C-alpha cells in the first residue's frame, strides 16, 4: 500500500463519517466493536481520525465541497448585497405598476425573496388562470448589520465608546 492510501476499513469509516459526521459511529460501522466498551470505541475513533492521511482526506473533501458549492466570502457578500439593497419597485412593470410574474423577476430581486405564497384565483370558464402572489422578504436591517460588521463599520464607533478602566492593586499584608 502506497504512503497516504487508506485501507478498506479506513475508507469505509471515512465514507460513513463524511455522510453522517459522527466519528464514533463511523468507527463502529467499519470495525468490530462487539467486545469494546463505549469509551474504548470513542478513543479508537479519535485515534483513527487523528491519522494524518485521514485528516488530509477530510480536508480535501471539505475544500472540494466548498468549491463545488461555490461558498466564498465574495458570494456570501453578494447575497447580502441583494438583500440589503433590494428595491421593491423592481418587482413592478413601471407602465402599469402591476407585479412582474416571479419567473420573470431579475435574479438579484429573487435573491431578496424569502418565500412566495401562491394562490390560484377563481376564474370564469374560458378565462386564463390567474394567481395571487404573496411575498416575504429577507430582513433588510439584519443584512445591513451583517455587512456593516463584516466591513468593520462598528469598530471606530465601539472604540470611541470604550471606557478606560483602571484597577489599582492594593497589597494587603497578612499578619
Please describe the topology of this protein.
Elements (H helix, E strand, L loop, with lengths): L7 H13 L2 H8 L7 H12 L2 H17 L4 H12 L7 E2 L4 E2 L7 H4 L2 E9 L8 E8 L2 H12 L3 H7 L14
Antiparallel strand pairs: 1-2, 3-4
Helix pairs in contact: 1-2, 2-3, 5-7
Would you identify the regions where 5 or more consecutive residues have pLDDT less than 50? none
Main beta sheet, described? 2 strands, antiparallel
Proportion of residues in helical segments = 40-55%
- Strand fraction: 5-15%
N-to-C CA distance: 72 Å
Give a count of the beta strands, DSSP E runs of length 2 or more: 4
Total DSSP helices = 8
Average pLDDT over all residues: 85
The largest beta-sheet arranges its strands as 1-2
Summarize the helix and strand pattern as letters.
Answer: HHHHHEEHEEHH
What radius of gyration results from the CA coordinates?
29 Å
Q: How many domains is the backbone divided into? A: 2
Identify the overall geometry: extended
Backbone structural class: alpha+beta
Descriptive overview:
By secondary structure, the protein is an alpha+beta fold. It has two domains: 8-68, Arc Repressor Mutant, subunit A (Orthogonal Bundle); 75-143, no CATH class. Helices cover 49% and strands 12% of the residues. The chain is built from eight helices and four strands, in the order H-H-H-H-H-E-E-H-E-E-H-H. It has helices at residues 8-20, 23-30, 38-49, 52-68, 73-84, 107-110, 140-151, 155-161, and strands at 92-93, 98-99, 113-121, 130-137. The strands form two sheets. A two-stranded antiparallel sheet has the order 1-2. A hairpin with a 4-residue loop joins strand 1 and strand 2. Helix 2 packs across helix 3. The longest helix has 17 residues, at 52-68. The radius of gyration is 29 Å and the shape is extended. It starts with 7 loop residues before the first helix and ends in a 14-residue tail after the last helix. The mean pLDDT is 85.
Amino acid at each position: 500500500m502506497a504512503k497516504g492510501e487508506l485501507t478498506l476499513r479506513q475508507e469505509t469509516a471515512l465514507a460513513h463519517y463524511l455522510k453522517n459526521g459522527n466519528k464514533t459511529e463511523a468507527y463502529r460501522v467499519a470495525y468490530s466493536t462487539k467486545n469494546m466498551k463505549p469509551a474504548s470505541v470513542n478513543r479508537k475513533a479519535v485515534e483513527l481520525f487523528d491519522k494524518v492521511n485521514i485528516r488530509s482526506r477530510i480536508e480535501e473533501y471539505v475544500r472540494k465541497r466548498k468549491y463545488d458549492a461555490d461558498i466564498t466570502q465574495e458570494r456570501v457578500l453578494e447575497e447580502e448585497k441583494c438583500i440589503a439593497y433590494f428595491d421593491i419597485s423592481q418587482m413592478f412593470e413601471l407602465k402599469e405598476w402591476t407585479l412582474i410574474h416571479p419567473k420573470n423577476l431579475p435574479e438579484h430581486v429573487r435573491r431578496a425573496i424569502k418565500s412566495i405564497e401562491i394562490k390560484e384565483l377563481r376564474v370564469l370558464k374560458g378565462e386564463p388562470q390567474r394567481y395571487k402572489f404573496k411575498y416575504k422578504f429577507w430582513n433588510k436591517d439584519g443584512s445591513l448589520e451583517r455587512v456593516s460588521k463584516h466591513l468593520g463599520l462598528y469598530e471606530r464607533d465601539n472604540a470611541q465608546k470604550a471606557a478606560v478602566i483602571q484597577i489599582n492593586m492594593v497589597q494587603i499584608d497578612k499578619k
